[in-house]
Amino acid sequence: MAKQTMRIILSLIVITTTAQLSLQSVNAQIEKRPHIKIRGVYGGVPTQLLEQNKTLPELGINAIFMGSGGLTQERVALLKKQGAKVFAEFNTLHVANYLKEHPDAAPIGVDGKVCPAPQGWQGICPTHPGYRNYRMDEFRRVLKEFEIDGIWLDYHHSHASWERAVPDMPDTCFCERCLKQFQRETKTNLPDAPASELSKQLLGKQKETWVQWRCDVFTDWVREFRSIIDEMRPQALLGTFHCPWTDTDFNGALKNKLAIDLKAQAKYVYIFSIMPYHARFNHPHDPAWISRQTSWLGKHLGIKGNPGEQHKIWPIVQLSDWGESVPVEQVNSVLDHGTRLPATGVMVFRWGSLHPQTEKVDAMIKSYQSLKP
Ligand SMILES: [Zn+2]
Question: What superkingdom heads the lineage (predicted)?
């Protein structure tokens, strides 16, 4: 009898200790991380927090990212008063409304016909001169009107739906304009054949030239954005929200399909906000995927996270439920992996759907406060 009681007591001790340990590992706060200069929230002014008479510095937040269309003088002034940096997000190649009046800007598929928007993600032909002017004018206006600390390119990739576990990335754009510009700029002569024939050739034996030319077209947009910043607000940062894959993930889709040449863009853009939305992108139980992708990016671009480096990595990490949900127990771990070197800043995706989940907001604040130097 005594032996049995002893055994029960012993197993109770084991159970309690294990439970405490696992609770500790969940609640263990991140240590101070002085290399992290930006602790941001993406998706607008967190008015729900300010209305509770809380200030952003006491919550550990020092930067707000918001859509350039949502900027107002009042909002910028309010955030500056809170001591926060204000960064604008800028839609480059995903203004679908433009096609209503300019159908000739729709991307053309391998069959020579307008390529339907994959899962509703409508892209635009990257060589349409009217569309490019329209975006450059808007970029200039945002920088002129608002005292922002930086502007981040968004959707700067080809017509594709990649923000999901299984991406849908049709090959485009085989419009007459793109085909002509390709021949002119790469000194290639294509036969007089319909686009449905030429696309086979371009994705076959000429694929390397075709892929690099498309990447160069997208990079040239970045060159122009940089020149506008230098002219309008040279102290503002130029960042980009970009696909979190490595150069080999999905058979090299980063360049082959999405036309994102990170090394080439690094000539003009200095802050890389990789988007490792672990839950959304099929890694719901593996927040460490975030730091693995960030680490790859650092090696790829030669960024270590040292003070004084011109290029920086500030990942945007997923706390709100999108596709897959993010449990409250994961918040600390997501921010832990999001703030490991070479990252020197981090921001949370995204306020609009996160703020009603107050438990997660509290966990985010706790993590930000604990890693704040
Ligand atoms: Zn085109």
Answer: Bacteria
